[in-house]
Amino acid sequence: MSAPRWLFLTLLACLILAVSAAPSASTFVLTQASWNFTFSLNVDKNSDDIYFRLVSSADYAWASVGIGSQMGGSLMFVAYEGKDSKAVTISPRIASGNVEPTYAPNINVTLEPGSGILDNRFVVNARCTNCRSWAGGSLDVKSKDQPFIYAWGPSWSFISTDSKSANMQRHSQYGFFDMDMTQASSGDAGVPEGTQNSGASKIGDTRNDLNFPLSIHTLTMFGSFVILFPMGALFIRVISKVKLHYITQSFSLAIVFFGLATGIQLSKLFNMTRNFRTSHQILGLVLIGFLIIQWVLGYVHHREYLRTQHRSVYSEAHLWLGRLVIISGVLNAFLGLHLAGRSTLGFLLIVLIVTGIFAVIYFVIWSRSRRKRSALGSNRATNFRDDDPSSLGNSRMDIPLTDHAAPPAYQEDYVRPPPGSPPNRNRI
Ligand SMILES: *[C@@H]1O[C@H](CO)[C@@H](O)[C@H](O)[C@H]1NC(C)=O
Ligand SMILES: *[C@@H]1O[C@H](CO)[C@@H](O)[C@H](O)[C@H]1NC(C)=O
C-alpha cells in the first residue's frame, strides 16, 4: 500500500470514528449576518446529566439560552466573559418574570474542555448534573417540542468576571424555539458538537428589545433638567416673564413625574436597583422632594412679592434651591448613565454645549438690558426718546455697575411707583 493511500484511509477511519463518537443531539442554529447563535443539547440516557454547547458572538455582553417558554420560571444559562479575557463564565439563573434573572447557586453547571472565548465567540461546553427540574419548572425529556428561549445583549456594558452573580443589562435581541428532546436524548454522555440546525425549529422572528421605559426615562429627565428647567430660569432672570417661567417650570415638573414613573418601573427590573439603594435612585427621589418644595416656594415668593414689592426669604430660598436642583439633577444623570452601563462622555459634551449656549443667551440679553436701563436711568435720557440711538450711545459712567447687576424686574406684574418715589433696588 502506497504511503498517501495509507494516510488517506487512516484519516477516513479517524473521521468515521469521530463522527460516530460525537453524541447525537438536537441543535438549534440561528444564522446572523456574520455569526451564528448555536445551541446543541445532549440528554444523557444513562444518568440525569445534560450536556450542551452554546456558541454566540462576543460582540455582545452576554448570551443565553433558557429552558421554558418564557423568562418567568425558566432555567437560563447565561454566558459572559471571565476575568481572563480568554475565559467564559457560565451562570445558571432563574427569573420571576420579565426581569433580570438571579443566579441559582444550587444548579450544578460546570464547564467542560474547549470552553472559552475563541475567535470572538463565546464557546460554552457544559455539563449539568441537576438541570432536569428546578424551582419553577422542568425539562421534559420525552417531549418532541420542548420550548426554549434565547437572548443576547447589549453591545455595551461588557461583563468580565468569574462571578456567576454578575449584574447584567437587558437583552438587545431575544426569541423562542422548540427542540425535539427524543432526538437529544438518544446519545451517550458527552458534549454535543452540532453546527447544523437539526431537531429544532425557531418560533417567530428574533425580536429587538426596544426598552421603552429606559428611552422615556432618559428623554424626560434630560429634557427637563438639562433644557427646560434652565430655560425656565432664564425666562425669569433675563427677560422677566413671570407667567412663562411659571408655565415652563410646572410643565417641566410634570415631565419629571413621568420620568419618575418610568424610573420606578425600570428599578423593579434589575437586581441592583430593586431595593432603591443606588445613589442615582436615592438622589433622584430627594430631588423629586426638592422640586415639589421648589414649586411651592415659587408660588409663596410670588404672592409675597406682589404684596410687598420686595424680595422675601422665600425668594432667596427659591433662587438657591433652583440652582441646587438643576446642578444636582445634571450630576444625577451621570450616575444614571453609569447605572445603565453607558459611557458618560457624550452626555458631558452635550451638557457643556448646552451650558455654553445658555451662558451666551444670558450674557447677550442681560448686557443689552443693562445698557438700556443704564442709559434710561441717566438724567439726560429723559430728554430723549427711548429709541433715539444717539441717547443710548453715551451712557453715564458714574453710575456704579453693581447697582445694576441684579437681574431685571418682573415686567408683567411690576406696578410703577408714583413719580418722585425712590427707585426700588430689591426687585428681581
Ligand atoms: C453558520 O451556520 C451555517 C450552517 O447552519 C454555516 O453554513 C455558516 O458557515 C455558519 N457561519 C458562521 C459564521 O459560522
Ligand atoms: C457537579 O458536577 C460535576 C461534574 O460536572 C460533578 O463532578 C460534581 O459531583 C457535581 N456536584 C454536585 C454537588 O452534584
Description:
Its main location: membrane. Keywords: Electron transport, Membrane, Signal, Transmembrane, Transmembrane helix, Transport. This is DOMON domain-containing protein. It is found in: Membrane. This protein is of the alpha+beta class and 428 residues long. It has eight helices and 15 strands. Helix content is 39%, strand content 20%. The strands form three sheets. The protein has a seven-stranded antiparallel beta sheet with strand order 7-6-5-4-13-14-15, with no helix packed on it. 29% of the residues are buried. The structure holds 2-acetamido-2-deoxy-beta-D-glucopyranose (2 copies). The site of one 2-acetamido-2-deoxy-beta-D-glucopyranose has 4 residues, from loops.
Short description:
This protein is α+β, with helices and mostly antiparallel strands and 428 residues long. It has helices spanning 3-21, 181-184, 212-237, 242-267, 279-308, 313-339, 345-377, 389-392; strands spanning 26-31, 36-43, 50-57, 62-67, 75-81, 88-94, 102-103, 109-111, 116-118, 121-128, 133-134, 137-138, 146-153, 173-179, 200-208.
Radius of gyration: 34 Å
Which term fits the overall shape? elongated
Helix/sheet category: alpha+beta
Per CATH, which architecture of the largest domain?
A: Up-down Bundle
User: What gap, in angstroms, lies between the N and C termini?
Assistant: 106 Å
Overall structural domain count: 2
State the helix count. Answer: 8
Order of helices and strands: HEEEEEEEEEEEEEEHEHHHHHH
Number of strands: 15
Poorly predicted regions are 14-20, 380-405
Q: What would CATH call the class of the largest domain?
A: Mainly Alpha
Largest sheet: 7 strands, antiparallel
